[in-house]
């Protein structure tokens, strides 16, 4: 009997171990929602801290490598990255500028298509510093066919009128100027009036007919009636209406469409209106220089 | 008994090292140390203890790897048995036959893992890239087999030698004590 046991001991052990491992696999194949084999649970219980014990030093080594040893070249990398950031920032600015220019050029092209007469681009090289006038100095003059009385505009709207020229420069009176007057209309209601410069940053829309529909937010366009400015150029928008019942003339404040503080380039319309042609008789004469206002003059 | 325990301890340590390396390196670069020690145990331990050691090493591997618990234990048992059977025909103490055998065993082990997973878990797709990984793993693992065998052999010799010395020491003291 003992001899038999000794002889089958090894196959028995093998079979027992194989059976044990197979039962472990069978126990482990159940879906996770079911209760797992007790042996599997026991092994997993042991496995969890063992795995933790393994991963902890490994993570320590890996983290140490990443945080300390691998940082040997970090200074060089940092320098390179800084250079890259500077280069990318410069590129970003260039792209942004290009986008701005692209949008601006699109608007300019649209504006040039709208007007049949040629528009001459001109750089703003100076701004009138006197307290009584609002004017710009442009880098194009008579040699570029710029004449007094020609309207000046940008893609946002009306800027003013050329008031004086030299062979290579021109002076343009802004619509903000107290001498300036633009025959205009409300885009929505077609109510007509006159936009006058107040000498400040705002304009005044003066309309005669009582009952005309003028509201805050209305867009004001040039009407073209005065024979100075072309029709349909944006002047500004109504910000306040002062309609006194007893008065014949009502007024409204207009915020200019153009940001005059940021003008860099303007367009001179190379054709004068009929009124200006009549005034100048086809010549190259300049508009008379304005006299200082009486109030400011003290007279 | 002591060499078997030592080999089991080394097997468990190998599993830990394997698990640690697998965190840092691609799996196909990590040698299958537990398999090497199982094969080494086949030539250095007596069969009964060797089976227990192989199952123990396999269970250790099951703790940290494999989709199925008991899978590695089962495979290590089979590999141990296979190594014992082949050792009866080939001299696995020599380097080249041992390397060739380990190469074959790693291939069998890989396909057996897939087969067991398919059998017990259902669908287990085998991609060509996994076959390449298996081949790479075999090429990394097999050359280390002679070192694993030498380690097991030296471990057994040293521990058996120390047992023998202790016996001798006890023998020499007996007459003095009498």
SSE class of chain A: alpha+beta
User: What is the CA-CA span between the terminal residues of chain A?
Assistant: 143 Å
Return the average pLDDT of chain B rounded to an integer.
81
Proportion in β-strands of chain A:
25-35%
- The ordered string of helix (H) and strand (E) elements of chain A is HHHEEEEEEEEEEEEHH
Q: Which consecutive residue ranges of chain B, at least 5 long each, have pLDDT under 50? A: none
CATH topology of chain B: Arp2/3 complex 21 kDa subunit ARPC3
The biggest beta sheet of chain A is recorded as: 6 strands, antiparallel, barrel
Rg of chain B, alpha carbons: 18 Å
Could you state the order of secondary-structure elements of chain B as H and E?
A: HHHHHHH
Mean pLDDT of chain A: 77
Could you name the CATH homologous superfamily of the largest domain in chain A?
A: Rod shape-determining protein MreC, domain 1
Percentage of residues in DSSP E strands of chain B: under 5%
What's the story with the biggest beta sheet of chain B? none
Shape of chain B: globular
CATH architecture of the largest domain in chain A: Beta Barrel
Please count the helical segments of chain B.
Answer: 7
Low-confidence segments of chain A: 289-299
The total domain count of chain B is: 1
Strand order of the largest sheet of chain A: 1-2-5-4-3-12
CATH class of the largest domain in chain A: Mainly Beta
């Amino acid at each position: 009997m003992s001899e038999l046991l000794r002889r089958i001991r090894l196959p028995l052990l093998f079979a027992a171990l194989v059976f044990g491992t197979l039962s472990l696999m069978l126990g482990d194949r159940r879906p996770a929602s079911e209760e797992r084999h007790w042996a599997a649970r026991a092994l997993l219980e042991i496995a969890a801290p063992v795995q933790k014990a393994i991963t902890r030093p490994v993570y320590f080594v890996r983290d140490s490598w990443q945080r300390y040893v691998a940082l040997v070249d970090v200074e060089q990398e940092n320098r390179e990255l800084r250079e890259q950031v500077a280069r990318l920032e410069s590129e970003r600015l260039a792209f942004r500028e290009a986008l701005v220019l692209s949008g601006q050029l699109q608007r300019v092209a649209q504006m040039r298509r709208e007007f049949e007469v040629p528009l001459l681009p001109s750089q703003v090289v100076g701004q009138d510093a006197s307290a009584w006038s609002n004017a710009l100095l442009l880098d194009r003059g008579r040699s570029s066919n710029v004449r007094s009385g020609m309207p000046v505009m940008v893609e946002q709207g009306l800027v003013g009128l050329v008031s004086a020229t030299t062979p290579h420069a021109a002076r343009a009176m802004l619509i903000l100027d107290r001498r300036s007057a633009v025959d205009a209309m409300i885009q929505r209601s077609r109510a007509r009036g006159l936009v006058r410069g107040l000498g400040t940053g705002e304009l005044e829309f003066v309309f005669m007919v009582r009952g005309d529909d003028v509201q805050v937010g209305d867009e004001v366009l040039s009407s073209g009636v005065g024979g100075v400015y072309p029709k349909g150029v944006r002047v500004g928008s109504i910000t306040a209406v002062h309609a006194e019942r007893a008065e014949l003339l009502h007024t409204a404040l207009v915020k200019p469409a153009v940001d005059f503080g940021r003008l860099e380039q303007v367009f001179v319309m190379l054709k004068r209106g009929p009124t200006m042609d009549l005034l100048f008789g086809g010549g190259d004469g300049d508009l008379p220089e304005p006299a200082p206002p009486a109030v400011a003059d003290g007279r | 008994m002591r060499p078997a325990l030592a080999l089991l301890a080394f097997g468990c340590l190998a599993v830990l090292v394997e698990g640690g390396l697998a965190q840092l390196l691609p799996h196909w670069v990590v040698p299958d140390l537990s398999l090497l020690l199982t094969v080494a145990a086949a030539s250095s331990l007596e069969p009964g203890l060797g089976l227990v050691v192989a199952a123990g090493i396999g269970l250790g591997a099951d703790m940290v790897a494999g989709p199925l618990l008991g899978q590695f234990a089962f495979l290590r048992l089979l590999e141990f048995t296979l190594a014992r059977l082949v050792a009866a025909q080939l001299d696995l103490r020599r380097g080249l036959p041992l390397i060739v055998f380990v190469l074959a065993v790693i291939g069998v082990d890989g396909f057996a893992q897939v087969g067991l997973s398919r059998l017990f878990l259902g669908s287990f797709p085998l991609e060509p890239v996994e076959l390449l990984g298996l081949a790479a793993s075999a090429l990394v693992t097999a050359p280390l087999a002679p070192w694993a065998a030498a380690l097991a052999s030296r471990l057994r010799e040293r521990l058996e030698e120390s047992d023998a010395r202790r016996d001798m020491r006890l023998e020499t003291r007996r007459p003095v004590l009498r």
